[in-house]
Design a protein that fits this description.
By secondary structure, this protein is mainly beta. The protein is built from no helices and eleven strands. Strands 2, 4, 5, 6, 9, 10 and 11 form a seven-stranded mixed sheet that branches. Strands 1-3-8-7 form a four-stranded antiparallel sheet, with no helix packed on it.
């Protein structure tokens, strides 16, 4: 399983970014995809998750209404659309995946992509 995250950058508060995570080596219908983030000096935290099989989504309270996770099976890619960005969204964002039937934890991780939101 390989995950390749991209799309980070520098944006002003109130702006938008879209992160992408290209996945390979997995049977998509059996996997959940997630986005996590880690700010300097803080622990990594959950942001959003997407289930290929049922197209269900979940979000951290801090991003509900501002972020949207979605997937494009034709492109083997999961996206995180981030709107109304705040300085506290500044972090390294990671995509991850797990096989739903066999793992309760996200077990495969991509490299991070830096998101910086200026005030």
């Amino acid at each position: 399983v390989q995950l390749q995250a991209s799309g980070g950058g520098l944006v002003q508060a109130g702006g938008s970014l879209r992160l992408s995570c290209a996945a390979s080596g997995l049977t998509f219908s059996r996997y959940d995809m997630g986005w996590f983030r880690q700010a300097p000096g803080k622990e990594r935290e959950f942001v959003a998750a997407f289930s290929w099989g049922g197209s269900s989504t979940s979000y951290a309270d801090s991003v509900k209404g501002r972020f949207t996770i979605s997937g494009d099976s034709a492109k083997n890619t999961v996206y995180l659309q981030m709107n109304s960005l705040k300085p506290e969204d500044t972090a390294v964002y990671y995509c991850a995946t797990r096989e739903r039937a066999t793992s309760s934890k996200f077990e495969y991780w991509g490299q991070g992509t830096q998101v910086t939101v200026s005030s």
